[in-house]
Amino acid sequence: MRKYFTHCNISIVIYMLILLSLLIRKYDFIDILLIAIIIFIIGNILYFTIYFTNLNRHIIPTNPNNICEKLYRMYDNEKYDILTKLMLKDNCDKIINEAEDYGSKNGWTSNRHKEYPTYDNLITEDWKCHPYIENICKQKIYPQISEMYNIDNNDIGITEIFVAKYDMKHQQGLDAHRDGSEFSFIIALNDDFSGGGTYFVDTKKHISLEKGDCLVFSGQNKHKGVKIQSGTRYIIAGFLHFKSCDYCANVLYNDTYCKGKK
Question: Is residue 151 classed as helix, strand or coil in its secondary structure?
Fold first, then answer.
């Protein structure tokens, strides 16, 4: 929004200069007003078309070495990779059992994320599987993201990790959205269901994982959880940040809000 107001201030100056030049040339007031309105409309259409679509990666000056600008402004966020057999199948089963045990005692949450909630539970340090998943992140997932986006492993951190459950009773899928994170991953804990998967909207790619596989991508790459048709789908979803959970928000918008927590 701050960018928009800056754009408006610049536009006002330009409009005033144009109107002044027209007055000097002695145009009628009605003609000047009509020209000003037309310029205003065309200018705003061009601004919003360029700034809020993929055209901005080609037109708006940016720093290509700044990962925040790449992901949020240049829309250079369509890379993804699949780490096959990242997690042993026995460990997948153990995590599902732990998740179900926790859910039977404490329930499953459905409102932790306000905009695009999932039927899930946060994996905290109290969970037995937490050290195992954290180690996988540091040993396998961080290096992959580092290679994909040419950043240092040490600049990547965990904002949150959770187990999401999709079934026919509570939640079958998730609408198209962008995560509140720079990077995200999904680990398939099972594959004995029909339907499901992750669909990337802009590239129109439907990704289906086998049990133990991991999908690594930018959270700013618009995607959705495809609805299951039968059975129950369990996944581990992770939101990862660059430097800190509010670093990019601060760099781009002078905002200290930690987006990954939304």
Answer: coil
Measured distance CA(56)–CA(215) in Å, rounded = 27
- Specify whether the CB–CB gap between 215 and 244 falls below 8 A: no
Nearest to 183 by CA among 211, 201, 157, 147: 157
Tens digits of residue pLDDT in 191-222: 999 999 999 999 999 999 999 999 999 999 99
Q: What are phi and psi of 191, to 5 degrees?
A: -140, 15
Task: List, in sequence order, every beta strand (DSSP E) within the chain.
Answer: 80-83, 120-122, 156-166, 174-177, 183-188, 194-195, 198-200, 205-207, 214-218, 223-225, 228-230, 233-242
pLDDT of residue 39 exceeding 80, the answer is no
Each residue's pLDDT tens digit, 118-171: 999 999 999 999 999 999 999 999 999 999 999 999 999 999 999 999 999 999
Beta bridge partners of 186: 215, 237
Alpha-carbon distance of 260 to 173, in angstroms, equals 20
Laid out side by side, the sheet with 174-177 consists of 174-177, 223-225, 198-200, 205-207
Q: Which domains occur in the chain, in start order?
A: 2-52 (no CATH), 80-261 (2.60.120.620)
Q: Would you list the DSSP string of 163-192?
A: EEEE-SSS-S-EEEE--SSSEEEEEES---
